Amino acid sequence: MAQHYDALVIGAGFSGMYQLIRLREQGFSTRVVEKGTGVGGTWYWNRYPGARVDIESVEYSYSFDDALQQEWDWSERYAAQPEILRYAEHVADRYDLRRDISFETSVEKAVWDEESDRWTVTMLSAEGSETVTASYVIAATGCLSMPSRPHFEGMDDFEGETYWTSSYPREGVDLTDKRVAVIGTGSSGLQTITAIAPVVGELTVFQRTPSYAVPAHNGPEADRLREVRPQYPAFRELSALSPLGFQCGEDNPRVMMETDPVDVRAELDRRWAVGGLCFNSGFEDTLRDQAANDLAAEYVRDQIRAKVKDPEVAEKLCPTTYPIASKRMCVDTGYFEVYNQDNVSLVDLQETPIERFSAKGVVAGGTEYEVDVIILATGFDAMTGALNAIEFRNGEQVLSEKWEHGPRTYLGLMSVGFPNLLTVTGPQSPSVLSNMMTSIEYHVDWITRLLQAQRAEGLTRIEPRPEAEDNWVNTTNDLADLTLMPQASSWYMGANIPGKQRVFMPFIGGVGAYKQIGDGIATVGYHGFDRA
Ligand code: FAD
Ligand code: NAP
Predict the structure, then answer these.
(1) pLDDT digits (tens, 9 = 90+) for 436-469
(2) Looking at the CA of 181, which ligand is closest?
(3) Domain 3-39+97-147+381-531 grouped into CATH 3.50.50.60
């Protein structure tokens, strides 16, 4: 007989860990299954040089236990990957999580059984295949956990070392004095480039599309912690109700196009000086009015021009082909200044595309760039990649096939045809448009409350109604269409993956508004769901 669990949780990142804590508290038998050898998810896999958060550490951390937030000291305003991974490991130790987590195990398939209201889940590990059953499957598989690894002709011919930022070796790589190529200039690329530029011999950056980046103004976190700690619970409540899941002082944002240009400039200057992702929160029309967006974008381009000494290089680093903030902005710690170093050069792939890899390096625009190491920072099959990699099946219906033309969910939590399957920060929830920790905690709490309600009412099945899903999908699309977001070829749109349907995947209505909707739906007995 297969082992049965109340809940099977896929993934031991911050979502899966917190889900385990909550379900255990409520007495649900729970097993977590994780591909990696340890906890931490994103922060377990992405160990590239310079990896760090783009949300301040006091916000990008769990809020569910005041004792935890009181005892943990963040060293920096924007913590780096080793510190975040230590934090994840601390949480695993503190709540004794590992005893319910199967590491180095991958969930391959889950099949719904209408008779028993259970999922039969097949997973693979070095020991072979194992099948278990679960009343509920909770996919905590991550929005950015399925790397996108484009193939370049001749990749196997390259005689040097090749690394992907999304699976960078845990022991690190000695790049001292080496000739290094970095391909990709999103957040991962920017952080890598900034971190390695001082140690490598030569650095060649292959850029297809430049990124908008705001300075982090990173530094010690001690003062901020002293300020926040005494009022942490109230502070977290404000974040949970904010548009982005962290606080940007945007209680009363102005309309840029109705504001005196001198005041606009002063506000952008003020936000630039503070640093971080709150840069865009001063005006409510930045993301919906092209003229406002152009002003903010030009402001950032001027900052780039001021930082980079060579005007030609500066122009190449200036993003012009998509609205600012229509891709998640990068938060940098001296990225643009790197191009003032003699050992750093930029190859603009718009002018000279990569033709192939050779034995000695990368060939672009007819030039062979000889390098010892190639680091690829080419991103992720975001939001749906990890979910579609699992065969979720109900009879003839498979989730990845249902989602072929884009994800269809109710609240980003469930999809019609797949009862008792819940997704933490699933597509059509705020997820990647927010401080993910806030969104993760909200979804996990919502799911836990649902499972408690099911048990209390003696119910064993829940599934969204088709009309609720249709309405939610339409709402998500309509909201996105009110903004400039769909103009960008972004991973939010699935545009970075060849053949993937272009559809704006996250819910852009804001974290606080989403919470109010989610709470309301739960409070009235799960409106829009069929329960039995
Ligand atoms: P993940 O951390 O992605 O964990 C999912 C886990 O599921 C992984 O460990 C994976 O191995 C496992 N898994 C997936 N499929 C299977 C399967 N079939 N079987 C078994 N295991 C499986 N967000 C922010 O808000 N702020 C930031 O500063 C920030 N920085 C980021 C930096 C990087 C480099 C990246 C890639 C993302 C960043 N994010 C950030 C987003 C980040 O993914 C979330 O903040 C958060 O860590 C997600 O946690 P999670 O548990 O939901 O998913
Ligand atoms: P990304 O933003 O998708 O960037 C991928 C980069 O690789 C882009 O510059 C892309 O160019 C380039 N690229 C992809 N395929 C290519 C090809 N075949 N040839 C040449 N260039 C290619 O991925 P990411 O940098 O990993 O970031 C993903 C998300 O993870 C971020 O948006 C953020 O949410 C999160 N993240 C956060 C942080 C942080 O600061 N805390 C750090 C890393 C990641 P194009 O743009 O032209 O496609």
Answers:
(1) 999 999 999 999 999 999 999 999 999 999 999 9
(2) 2
(3) yes
Tell me the pTM.
Answer: 0.98
Which ligand has the nearest atom to the CA of 14?
1
Ligand 1, atom 47, lies closest to the CA of 42
265-269: average pLDDT: 96
Indicate the DSSP class of residue 253. Answer: P
What percent of the residues of the chain are helix, what percent strand, and what percent coil, each to the nearest 5?
A: 35, 20, 45
Question: Are 200 and 180 in contact, with CB atoms under 8 Å apart?
Answer: yes
Tens-digit pLDDT profile for residues 12-49:
999 999 999 999 999 999 999 999 999 999 999 999 99
* Nearest CA residue ID for atom 8, ligand 1: 41
What distance in Å separates the CA atoms of residue 324 and residue 303, rounded to the nearest whole number? 14
The domains of the chain are located at 3-39+97-147+381-531, 155-376
pLDDT tens track for 494-525: 999 999 999 999 999 999 999 999 999 999 99
- How many angstroms does the Cα of residue 184 sit away from the middle of ligand 2? 6
Residue 367: strand pairing partners: 364
Residue nearest to atom 2 of ligand 2 (CA): 186
Q: How far is Cα 505 from Cα 427, in angstroms, rounded to an integer?
A: 5
Does the C-beta of 362 come closer than 6 Å to ligand 2?
A: no
